[in-house]
Amino acid sequence: MAEFGWAHLSGAVTGEGPAKAVQYLKTSDGELTGSANFTFNQTTDQLFLTGTMIISGTLQAHTFDVIHTNKVEISSSGGTNFGNDSADTHVFTGSVSIVSGGLRQHYYKLTGTSHTVQAYDSIIGVTNTNYVSIELPTAAAAGFGRVLVIKDETTSTRSDADKIAVSGSGVENIDRENTYSLSGDNPALTLYSNGVNAWFIY
Question: What pTM did the predictor assign?
Answer without folding.
Answer: 0.68
